Amino acid sequence: MSQYSWADPPSRTAFPVAAPGYPFIYASAFVTIVFALLGWAIPAVAGILVTVAICLFFRDPDRATPVSANALIAPADGRVVFVGKVDSNPYVDGSCVKVGIFMSVFNVHVNRIPFAGKIQEIHHYPGKFMPADKDAASLQNERNAVILKTDDHRTIGVVQVAGLIARRIITWVNAEENVAAGSRFGMICFGSRVDLYLPEDAEILVKKGEKVTAGLSVVGSLPTSAE
Fold it and tell me: Which H helix or E strand runs over 84?
């Protein structure tokens, strides 16, 4: 039987919402109330629908993560759009295996740590805002790279990539911070992608086109010691 654990403490509310969403929710709700007080029925109904949509976008459900020393956990909800080897990249030295996950506006956008370790460094890269499901977006769009070092000194890159309408990348971890697999580390507002850059000997268990769930789906396996 598979075992699971809470990487983050479970929320105390029935419908958890990510903190960055509160300003958008409050603003939409305020405008909706104004419309209602003015007796503008159609705008008020539209405002209610928009407020509900914003709440759904910023939903942050609790996730129990599989307990495994080797499992690579999905960092994002969405569809796998890239699986393959890359010879070089700006984040991790040398060739590596890359897994790209595209998040539509309907997916949960809170991102999670794929493997336990320590945050080595965090780098921000300005760039374009082309559709995030395109391979070129990985290196040309605005992005934030979290470089993670495992306990046995392997390096993993977790890169948040902005999309066509995504304009805000949020990362709430810091360098030198110890993190657990499946724990929340940030989010991207309104459509985007997250790319994993893994050691060459990582065994990938997902294929292009598959859907994965952050903090829950196992996308691969990473040997705990180098050969």
Answer: strand 78-86
Separation of alpha carbons 224 and 71, rounded Å: 10
Rg of the chain in Å (alpha carbons): 19
Structural contact between residues 132 and 79, judged by C-beta atoms closer than 8 angstroms: no
Report the C-alpha gap between 187 and 103 in whole angstroms.
11
Q: What is the model's pTM?
A: 0.89
CATH architecture of structural domain 70-221? Distorted Sandwich (2.70)
pLDDT digits (tens, 9 = 90+) for 96-115: 999 999 998 899 999 999 99
**Catalytic residue (choose from 183, 192, 217, 221):** 192
192 given a catalytic annotation: yes
Q: What is the 3-state secondary structure (H, E, C) of 141-207?
A: ECEEEEEEECCCCCEEEEEEEECCCCCEEEECCCCCCEECCCCEEEEEECCEEEEEEECCCCEECCC
